[in-house]
Amino acid sequence: MSDETTSQEGITEPQGEGANENQSADGSQFTQEEFNRLMAREKRALREKYADYDVLKEKAAQLDAIEEAQKSELERAQEEAQGWKAKYDELNEQVERRNAIDRAAAEYKVDAAMLARMSGDVDENAKFLAERSESVLKYPNVRDEGERMSASITEDDIAAEKDPAKRVRMRAELIAQTRK
Hints:
Layout: E1 4-6, E2 12-14, E3 21-23, E4 29-31, H1 32-49, H2 53-108, H3 112-117, H4 122-137, H5 155-160, H6 164-179
Antiparallel strand pairs: 1-2, 3-4
Helix pairs in contact: 2-4, 4-6
């Protein structure tokens, strides 16, 4: 037989001379049986102390998952709000540009549709179109023989025209014809 024994907890302990006697911290001596009981009691106390560790660990994981879900929900809501704000800002810019186009078209007496198709500063574009309209009017409206042509363009013809550039030219031609 060997000089070792296995306790209930599976710990191998040496057997032999002095093996049954251990000293405590205060110097008193314990038998192996007393020592095993003390160790078993301490182990039970530790097990009882941490008995709900798995439950607490599971609850902590659930709480983390809930917090993550709420965080994700909040982030989704914030992203959606940013998307709506960007859309609002874009529509607001379009309305402001449309108002500026209408104001400049009325002030400079140019075609608003033509002005809307142009990029850049609305007032500068309106001035440009107004100057172009005036330069078109400088050329006389005459036939090859030098006689003046009659006004053949009407406001209805201009309104019916789909091409904005052609409408501008037609309006300039009508203005030139009425000045003569």
